[in-house]
Structures are given as C-alpha cells and as structure tokens.
C-alpha cells in the first residue's frame, strides 16, 4: 500500500504563485510515475502534470504549459507542482496520483487551490 499526502494549497491572487507538495509513504520502491490532477466544481477531474519516477520525464497539460512545473525528489519520495502566473480558472482541488510498477494506482486526499481575480 501507498499513502499520499498533499500540502501547499491555499488562496492566492491572480498572477501569484503556489507550490504543492505530495509526499508518498509505504510501498514506494515500485513507483513508476506520479502526477497531479485537478477537479473544479461541476467539472470532471483532469490531468495537469506527470513525471516518470526513474528518468524524470515530464508531461504537462496544454492549459498549464509555461506556467506550471512538475519535479520530484526521489530521496524524499515527494513530487512538487510549482504553479506560477495563476489564473482564476486554475481554482480547483488538486490531487496527487501515483502509478506503481505492479499496476496499482493511488490518490491523495486533495488540496484546495483558490485563485481570486
């Protein structure tokens, strides 16, 4: 089993920045990739950014390219999402996700990000 704990959410004005963290614990030696998703009220959960655990290859949704950066610290089993130039449409609950080598998928509890105009 893997446990994911997100932190770093909050209220920020448009144009501001936040950094989200997601710490993984438990059976983390088989981590294949980690990612961030978000879900705004009344909308489906959508992919934001992902990173492969061994190579560090990243992939960003078009809506956040040039503004968000995903990174990881393998020693700390932590993935980060640096969010710059935030817009009101970035307001959502942000969820951390982990894919394991053996096919399991795990979610964190989510952290609220609110961007005021």
How is this structure best described in words?
With 117 residues, the chain is an all-beta fold. The protein has strands spanning 2-7, 10-13, 18-26, 31-39, 46-52, 58-60, 68-73, 78-83, 92-100, 105-107, 111-116.
Portion in helices: under 10%
Oligomer: single chain
**How much strand?**
over 45%
Task: Kindly state the number of beta strands.
Answer: 11
Instruction: State the low-pLDDT regions, or none.
Output: none
Q: Helix count, per DSSP?
A: 0
Radius of gyration: 14 Å
Distance between the termini: 40 Å
SS content category: mainly beta
Q: Averaged pLDDT, please?
A: 96
What characterizes the major β-sheet?
7 strands, mixed
Tell me the overall shape: globular
Order of helices and strands: EEEEEEEEEEE
Summary?
By secondary structure, this protein is mainly β. The chain contains no helices and 11 strands.
Which keywords apply here?
117 residues, mainly beta, seven-stranded mixed sheet, four-stranded antiparallel sheet, 0% helix
């Amino acid at each position: 089993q893997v446990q994911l704990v997100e932190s770093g959410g909050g209220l920020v004005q448009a144009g501001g920045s936040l950094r989200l963290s997601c710490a993984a614990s438990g059976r983390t030696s088989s981590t294949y990739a980690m990612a961030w998703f978000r879900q705004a009220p009344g909308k489906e959960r959508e992919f934001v950014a992902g990173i492969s655990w061994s190579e560090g290859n990243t992939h960003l949704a078009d809506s956040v390219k040039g503004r968000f950066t995903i990174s990881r610290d393998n020693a700390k089993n932590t993935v980060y999402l640096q969010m710059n130039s935030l817009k009101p449409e970035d307001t959502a609950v942000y969820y951390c996700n982990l894919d394991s080598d053996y096919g399991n998928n795990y979610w964190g509890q989510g952290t609220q990000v609110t961007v005021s105009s």
